[in-house]
Each structure stands twice: as C-alpha cells, then as structure tokens.
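Input structure tokens:
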C-alpha cells in the first residue's frame, strides 16, 4: 500500500517507521492527525478500541466500492450539500437488527411499527393505496380527499 505524504514533522526515523507512522505485523499504524493529499487506498481503516474514527474534509468524504474492472458498484458521499448513497440496495436497521427502511429500484419498504407523515399537506399518492388500517391521531379528524378531475 502506498501512502501519500502526511503533514507532520518527522521527529524520529527508525526501522519501525517515521514519526507517528509505524510499521506493525498487521500493517501501518498512524497515530494523530494527518492530511492526505491524494486518495487513500486501504483494506481496512479503524480507530483505537473505544475511540471514534474521525474523518474531516473541506469538500466531501467519498467511499467508493469498485469491481475488479474498477467500475463503480456502490458509492457513499457526504458533503456540505448533504448525504448521497448510490447502489443497488439501501437498508437501515435498528440496533436490534429490525428492518426500519429499505429501498431498491422495485420497492421501498418502511418496517417501523408506525409511519407518521408530518407535512402540512399530509401524504399524496399518485397511484392506488392499499392498507388494512387507516386512522387519525387520537382526538384528531381523519380526512380523505381526492383532487378534482381536470
């Protein structure tokens, strides 16, 4: 693995590494803050046990999964304008493993016990809706409307 120059002053050079960069049996160990000027390629990146992994960028942080032909399969991008994920499938689970939300090109599934729509306009469906149960909040009116045909 090739690492691009990191911004720090090298205080000690030995057969074990340079400064805060150490060569270990498991790979390279970098302690402290570092700046990478080009993409970083690694099999695994992890923090010390019990410590958070902190990534910071002035533009965005991108994680790309590619196949053997370097074709993009999955992408995760966080930036100043928001969060984007690209892939064949997206899934969110609770800490207990229960499915909360999933989406693919064919279907979106909300697995929570209850779906609440908070917008002032309620929910708008362009096609048919099928449900075994419809109810309003306690002591609130339930309204079903259909827009006038043009």
């Amino acid at each position: 693995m090739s690492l691009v120059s990191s911004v720090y002053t090298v205080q000690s050079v030995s057969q074990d590494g340079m400064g805060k960069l150490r060569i270990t049996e498991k790979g390279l160990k970098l302690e402290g803050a570092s700046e990478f000027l080009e993409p970083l390629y690694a099999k695994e990146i992890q923090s010390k046990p019990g410590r958070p992994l902190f990534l910071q960028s002035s533009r965005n942080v991108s994680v790309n999964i590619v196949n053997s032909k370097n074709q993009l399969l999955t992408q995760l991008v966080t930036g100043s304008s928001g969060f984007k994920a690209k892939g064949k499938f997206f899934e969110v689970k609770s800490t207990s493993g229960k499915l909360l939300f999933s989406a693919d090109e064919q279907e979106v599934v909300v697995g929570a016990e209850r779906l609440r729509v908070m917008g002032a306009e309620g929910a708008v469906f362009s096609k048919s809706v099928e449900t075994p149960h419809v109810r309003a909040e306690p002591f609130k009116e339930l309204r079903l409307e259909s827009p006038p045909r043009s």
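The first strand starts at residue 13 and ends at 14. Confidence is low (pLDDT under 50) at residues 1-10.
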